[in-house]
Amino acid sequence: MEYEVVEYNAKEHSDLVNNLPAETILKPYNIFRHFNPKGKLIVDLGCGDGSISRTAIDRGADYVLGIDSKFEMIILAGDMNEGYKGRIHYINDFVENCEGSGKFDIAIMSYLLNNAQSANQLEKQVKAAFSFLKKGGKAIVYNNNPFDTIGGDFTKYGFRKTITGTDEGSEIIYNYSPFMSKRIVNYFLKSETHEEAFRKAGFSKFRWEKLELMPDADKAFWKEYFERKELPVIGAVAEK
Ligand SMILES: C[S@@+](CC[C@H](N)C(=O)[O-])C[C@H]1O[C@@H](n2cnc3c(N)ncnc32)[C@H](O)[C@@H]1O
Questions:
Q1: pLDDT value at position 2?
Q2: Which of 125, 24, 43, 31 is nearest to 88 (CA)?
Q3: If you measure from the C-alpha of residue 92 to the centroid of ligand 1, how many angstroms do you get, rounded to a whole number?
Q4: What pLDDT shows up at residue 29?
Q5: Of the N and C termini of the chain, which has fewer Cβ atoms inside 10 Å?
Q6: Is the CB of 100 under 6 A from ligand 1?
Q7: Alpha carbon of 221 to ligand 1 centroid (Å)
Q8: Cβ(46) to ligand 1 under 6 A?
Q9: What is the rounded distance in angstroms from the CA atom of residue 228 to the CA atom of residue 219?
Q10: Are 50 and 90 within 8 A, CB to CB?
Q11: Are 18 and 51 in contact (CB under 8 A)?
Q12: What is the dihedral of CA 202, 45, 162, 170, to 10 degrees?
C-alpha cells in the first residue's frame, strides 16, 4: 500500500515546533508527565525534526530511535544531532513499514496517528508501535483530539482548526499561517476507532489523557485554550 508524505515544508514546521509555546512547553509537558525518560530506550514515531527525541535525551533517556517518512525532516534532525551522536539515530521510512525488536520501553507518537486516513492505516501504525515495545512498555500519544468536533480560532496560540466533517477520514485542517505557508491536513477518525486499533494490536490498557496546564504556567495566557470542553489536542497512554 502507498502512504502519503506530508506536504508542508519541513523547515517551516521545524521553526514552528521550536518557537510556539503550544509546541515548546505544552506538548513536552503533556508527553513527559506520563513517564520518566531516565535510562529508557525510546522510539519516536513520526519524529519530525527530532525535537522530542532530543528532549528525551536531555531528560536522561539512554537512547532514541527516530522514524519519519519525510526525507527533509530526517535531514533537519540530522543537522541538529551534534551533541547527540550515538544516542539518537534516525530512519527515513513510513512507520507502517517498520517492525520493531520488542526491546523499547517507550514509543512516542506525537502527531503521528492523526495522519492516518483510515482505520486500517491507524491499525498498522499502532501495530508497529506495539512491535517496538517490550512487555510493560508504554505508548505515549499526543494527537488531534477526536472528541473535538468543533475546532476554532486559536490564533493566539498560532493556529486555526477547521473540522470538515466527522465521517471516518474527513479532513481536519490546521492553519498555521503566517508561520507556515501550507496547511497541515489531519484526518478525523473516531475515538472508538483509536481504542479498537490499540486493542487489536495487543495493548492490554488504553486511556485518553486530557491535556493539563503546566503548574507554573501563565494562566491568563492559556485561558482561552483551556476554557473549551474539548481541547484541540489530546493525549493517550497505552501499555503492552
Ligand atoms: C506534525 S509533525 C510532528 C513531529 C514531531 N513528532 C513533533 O511532535 O514535533 C508529524 C510528523 O509525522 C510524520 N509522519 C506522518 N505520517 C507518517 C508515517 N506514516 N510514518 C512516519 N512518519 C510520518 C511527518 O512527516 C511529520 O514529520
A1: 85
A2: 43
A3: 11
A4: 98
A5: N
A6: no
A7: 28
A8: yes
A9: 14
A10: yes
A11: yes
A12: -50
Indicate the residue type of 115.
N
Residue 209 confidence class, pLDDT cut points 50, 70, 90 = very high
The answer on pLDDT for 170 being more than 80 is yes
In whole numbers, what is the pLDDT of the chain averaged over residues?
97
How many whole angstroms from 71 Cα to the centroid of ligand 1?
Answer: 11
Parse the chain into domains and list their residue ranges: 10-149+189-239
Query: If DSSP codes are grouped into helix, strand and coil, which group holds residue 152?
Result: strand
CB 109 within 8 A of CB 47: no
Say how many Å lie between the CA of residue 164 and the centre of ligand 1: 21
For ligand 1, atom 12, which residue shows the shortest CA distance?
Answer: 46
Nearest atom in ligand 1 to the alpha carbon of residue 121 is 19
User: Which one of 70, 74, 117, 187 would you pick to mutate in the ligand 1 pocket, going by the greatest count of ligand atoms within 8 A of its CB?
Assistant: 70
Q: 192-217 burial by CB neighbour count: b if 16+ within 10 A, else e?
A: ebbbbbbeebebeebebbebebeeee
pLDDT tens per residue, range 107-149: 999 999 999 999 999 999 999 999 999 999 999 999 999 999 9
The CATH class of the 10-149+189-239 domain is alpha beta
